[in-house]
């Protein structure tokens, strides 16, 4: 009886190890313990600047989704361990000497999926420093299957900050950790990789997307400049009065997007939402009035027809 219960529970726990309580924290602790031990043995001397670090993993049942392959979110979770590995291998002095007061923060990840990782398959994650500029340090990752097939390519961008919040350029941090830039091939390789990495930063432009996420009319949500307000006023005669009065009141009190704080944006969003609800309510009321009028007309028409028929009968 004990075996009948214990074996299934044991198999379930074994194949779902990564989802057990505190599993992520315990794995991080063991990884840090090993990396700190290695760094101390090397007297906090860093690995070569473009050195590759590798980690072996297996896709357990709690890593897969309903498509029967490794879930997209698992890739990002695994990359956490790779970033820790890089930081303690290439930046051991900063990570282990607290008086520097410098900390590395993940600023974003881009993943490109090329091949699925099936359940219970072994795979390797390789990571290395890719390139950097005055603010960002880029890391390059790839997920390899046992036959050497690249399953996924990924890029992480790291920013170094002091406790005060001041950004520390990656090159300064690298020099502080003992990296030497006398070799001209280092800068040559950095520039070559930067030609590609700089385009990743252009993704930040999505923050300035002018198109509303709301399904409501843009004129009710988007703050407008003075020139746009004039265009709205000049064309206001062609719109229904209920919509005209509400949308123009929003527009006339709305500065341009570039001058808005988060609180102001929230205020305009609530105002637009309330205005739209008012418009929809007014429109619905008008439709109800028309429907009731048609019903009354039908009733009156029926009474008139009945009177006419009675007259003919007499």
How is this structure best described in words?
With 314 residues, the chain is α+β, with helices and mostly antiparallel strands. The protein folds into two domains: 9-208, Thiol Ester Dehydrase, Chain A, CATH 3.10.129.10; 218-313, no CATH class. It is 51% helix and 17% strand. The chain has ten helices and six strands; from the N terminus they run ααβααβββββαααααα. Strands 1, 2, 3, 4, 5 and 6 form a six-stranded antiparallel sheet that branches. Helix 2 packs parallel to helix 3 (72-90) and helix 9 (241-252) runs antiparallel to helix 10 (262-313). The relative contact order is 0.08. The model is unreliable at 240-255 (pLDDT under 50).
Outline:
This protein is an alpha+beta fold. The protein folds into 2 domains: 9-208, Thiol Ester Dehydrase, Chain A (Roll); 218-313, no CATH class.
List its salient traits.
314 residues; alpha+beta; 2 domains; six-stranded antiparallel beta sheet; 51% helix; 17% strand; Thioesterase/thiol ester dehydrase-isomerase
Helix tally equals 10
Rounded average pLDDT: 80
Find the structural class using helix and strand composition.
Answer: alpha+beta
Distance between the termini: 97 Å
- Quote the CATH topology of the largest domain: Thiol Ester Dehydrase, Chain A
Approximately how much beta-strand content do the residues carry?
Answer: 15-25%
Report the CATH C-level class of the largest domain.
Alpha Beta
How many domains, as an integer? 2
Helix amount: 40-55%
């Amino acid at each position: 009886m004990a075996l009948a219960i214990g074996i299934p529970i044991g198999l379930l726990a074994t194949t779902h190890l990564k989802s057990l309580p505190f599993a992520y924290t315990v794995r991080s602790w063991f990884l840090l313990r090993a990396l700190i031990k290695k760094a101390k043995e090397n007297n906090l001397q860093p690995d070569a600047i473009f050195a590759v670090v590798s980690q072996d993993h297996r896709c357990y049942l709690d890593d897969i989704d309903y498509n029967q392959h490794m879930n997209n979110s698992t890739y990002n979770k695994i990359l956490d361990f790779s970033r820790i590995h890089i930081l303690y291998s290439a930046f051991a002095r900063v990570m282990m000497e607290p008086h520097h007061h410098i900390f590395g923060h993940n600023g974003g990840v881009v993943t490109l999926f090329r091949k699925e990782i099936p359940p219970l398959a072994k795979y390797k994650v390789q990571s290395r420093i890719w390139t950097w500029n005055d603010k960002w340090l880029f890391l390059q990752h790839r997920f390899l299957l046992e036959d050497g097939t690249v399953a996924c390519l990924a890029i992480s961008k790291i920013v170094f900050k002091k406790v005060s919040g001041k950004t520390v350029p990656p090159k300064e941090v690298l020099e502080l950790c003992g990296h030497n830039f006398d070799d001209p091939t280092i800068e040559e390789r950095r520039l070559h990789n930067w030609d590609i990495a700089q385009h990743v930063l252009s993704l930040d432009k999505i923050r300035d997307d002018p198109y509303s996420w709301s399904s409501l009319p843009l004129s009710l949500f988007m703050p407008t400049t003075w020139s746009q307000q004039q265009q709205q006023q000049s064309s206001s005669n062609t719109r229904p009065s209920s919509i005209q009065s509400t949308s123009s009141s929003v527009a006339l009190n709305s500065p341009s997007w570039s001058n808005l704080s988060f609180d102001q944006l929230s205020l305009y969003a609530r105002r637009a939402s309330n205005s739209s609800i008012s418009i929809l309510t007014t429109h619905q009321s008008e439709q109800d009035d028309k429907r009731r009028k048609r019903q009354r007309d039908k009733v009156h028409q029926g009474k008139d027809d009945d009177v006419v028929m009675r007259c003919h009968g007499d």
